[in-house]
Amino acid sequence: MDSTSNLLQLSNIAELNTQIGAERLKMENIQATSRYRITLFSIVTGLLLLSLLFLMLYLHRKRKVNLELCHKNEELSEARDQAEAANKADNFGQGTGPELNICRLIAERLKGKVLPDKEYKEGARFVFVLPVEEKNKSYLKT
After folding, report:
1. Which stretch of 12-16, 59-63, 64-68, 82-86 has the lowest confidence by average pLDDT?
2. How far is CA 52 from CA 35, 45, 62, 98, in A?
3. What b-and-e string marks burial along 43-52, b requiring 16 or more CB atoms within 10 Å of the CB?
4. What pLDDT was estimated at residue 92?
5. What mean pLDDT do residues 98-115 have?
């Protein structure tokens, strides 16, 4: 009876160790998946967004300086009117041109381009063309 109870206790201990090991493995997997992994894509995206921020700040500062110069010089009344119209359009959230230039710069940095859609007749529409590298091209061989 003692040997049977000892075997039963050993099997219970082994089963308990297996359960504890499985729980520990689950906890390690949860911790491993919850950590933030820095990838090349996140670095490139961060750098692009940072360069976009600096570009927007530069354009905003340049527009403010031009507006101040127009107010100081009365001979530039037409330029002042255009600058005020652009500033008013910005206050209403409408695009005045720099956004398209920023999009073009980002597309060129990603080795792509921005093209006008010639088929669209109800205003202006632009198409982004960005290169995509396919890792698995086996579907193209069919």
Report:
1. 64-68
2. 28, 10, 15, 12
3. eeeeeeeeee
4. 39
5. 75
Q: How far apart are CA 50 and CA 55, in angstroms?
A: 9
In residues, how long is the chain? 142
Please report which confidence band the pLDDT of residue 91 belongs to, taking 50, 70 and 90 as the band edges: very low
What is the torsion angle, in degrees rounded to the nearest 10, for the CA atoms of residue 7, residue 11, residue 16 and residue 17?
A: 100
Q: What mean pLDDT is predicted for residues 51-75? A: 61
Coil/strand/helix, residue 2: helix
CB 67 within 8 A of CB 84: yes
The sign one gets for the Cα dihedral 132, 134, 140, 141 is: positive
Beta bridge partners of 114: 128
Among 63, 53, 52, CA closest to 103: 52
